[in-house]
Amino acid sequence: MNLNATLFFQMIVFFVLGWFTMKFIWPPLTKAMDDRRQKIADGLAAAEKGKADLAQAQARVSLMEAAAKTENHARLAEAEKQATSLIDQARREAEAEKARILAQARQDAAQEVQRARETLRAEVAVLAVKGAEQILRREVDAKAHAELLDQLQAQL
């Protein structure tokens, strides 16, 4: 066998194989690599977008937490203020009720003292009449001396 002819046929087979590879094998292979490269790039872009969205969401959550804390503190302060107001109002109402009860008690006591005085005056008048009756040993006419007894009762 001739070495030149073998080299020539090997060259022809090599070029046919190169042409066949470049015509039918290489384009789908490069297309698959480009598609894969594009998917990887899209995945990386989506990951970056996800990171940015996560950062924005965390910022919104932080703002919402701060707003909730502020609102919570405001509500607590308002509740404390309202509780203090209710306590003060109850204290004022209790003081007013106390004053009313004391005034009523004083008025009742004054009426009782007045009734007791009237009762004592009447009893003293009866006792005075009985004492005068015993001293004089005679019956005293109550009708005749009613005016005298009323004056005596008024003086006592």
TrEMBL record:
Keyword Transmembrane part of the UniProt annotation: yes
Membrane-spanning segments: 6-26
Coiled coil: 73-123
Family stated for the protein in its record: Belongs to the ATPase B chain family.
Keywords, ordered alphabetically: ATP synthesis, Cell membrane, CF(0), Coiled coil, Hydrogen ion transport, Hydrolase, Ion transport, Membrane, Transmembrane, Transmembrane helix, Transport
Function: Component of the F(0) channel, it forms part of the peripheral stalk, linking F(1) to F(0). The b'-subunit is a diverged and duplicated form of b found in plants and photosynthetic bacteria.
InterPro entries listed in its UniProt record: ATP_synth_B-like_membr_sf, ATP_synth_b/b'su_bac/chlpt, ATP_synth_F0_bsu_bac, ATP_synthase_B_chain
Protein name: ATP synthase subunit b
GO terms of molecular function: hydrolase activity; proton-transporting ATP synthase activity, rotational mechanism; proton-transporting ATPase activity, rotational mechanism
Intracellular or extracellular location(s): Cell membrane; Endomembrane system
Subunit structure: F-type ATPases have 2 components, F(1) - the catalytic core - and F(0) - the membrane proton channel. F(1) has five subunits: alpha(3), beta(3), gamma(1), delta(1), epsilon(1). F(0) has four main subunits: a(1), b(2) and c(10-14). The alpha and beta chains form an alternating ring which encloses part of the gamma chain. F(1) is attached to F(0) by a central stalk formed by the gamma and epsilon chains, while a peripheral stalk is formed by the delta and b chains.
UniProt membrane topology term: Single-pass membrane protein
Record lineage: Bacteria, Pseudomonadati, Pseudomonadota, Betaproteobacteria, Burkholderiales
GO cellular component: endomembrane system; plasma membrane; proton-transporting ATP synthase complex
Top-level lineage group: Bacteria
SUPFAM superfamilies: F1F0 ATP synthase subunit B, membrane domain
NCBIfam families: ATP_synt_b, PRK05759.1-2
Signal peptide (UniProt feature, chain positions): none
Record-linked CDD domains: ATP-synt_Fo_b
HAMAP family assigned to the protein according to its UniProt record, in alphabetical order: ATP_synth_b_bprime
